[in-house]
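> forwarded from #structure-qc
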């Protein structure tokens, strides 16, 4: 199934999966919808969202000679998915979900969060006795922002660079 190929949507009755594969198709659609990559137009009709189209374009750019390369997601890409999904996050909360070795990943995640705060993508929430929490205030899209040397964040969704503010001491 390819969503959005002809009229910008796909109908379930257009699909011809083998017997027993309908549950896989429906499960895939539910995952796409839960991640904000597809939406239901009406019962049995689906289409990609803008985020879904951007992700497909970005993945197509990673293809070499028509064959997709297997690329493992970095810690920062996984952190970005959690931030977008949960909207309010804490570093210990992120660590509990993604890190196999939390003590090794803590600094990486802390530095990434600090860069996103300075870039105006996240904002710290007032502390209420527990761990420091952050809220997503500027969502550039599904692809993870990249911290670069020289005080910029590259947004792979738009191709633009965001200047990072100096850290307040």
């Amino acid at each position: 199934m390819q969503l959005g190929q002809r009229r910008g949507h796909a109908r379930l009755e257009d699909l011809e999966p083998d017997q027993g594969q309908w549950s896989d198709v429906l499960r895939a659609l539910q995952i796409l919808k839960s991640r904000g990559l597809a939406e239901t137009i009406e019962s049995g009709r689906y289409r990609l969202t803008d985020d879904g189209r951007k992700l497909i374009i970005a993945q197509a750019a990673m293809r070499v000679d028509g064959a997709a390369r297997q690329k493992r997601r970095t810690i920062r890409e996984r952190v970005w998915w959690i931030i977008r999904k949960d909207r309010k996050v804490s570093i210990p909360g992120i660590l509990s979900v993604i890190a196999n070795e939390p003590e090794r990943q803590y600094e990486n995640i802390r530095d990434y969060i600090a860069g996103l705060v300075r870039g105006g993508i996240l904002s710290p929430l007032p502390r209420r006795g527990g761990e420091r929490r952050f809220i997503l205030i500027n969502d550039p899209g599904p692809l993870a922002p990249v911290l670069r040397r020289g005080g910029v964040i590259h947004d792979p969704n738009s191709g633009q660079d965001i200047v990072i503010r100096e850290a307040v001491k």
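QC bot note: Confidence is low (pLDDT under 50) at residues 1-6. The longest helix spans residues 102-118.
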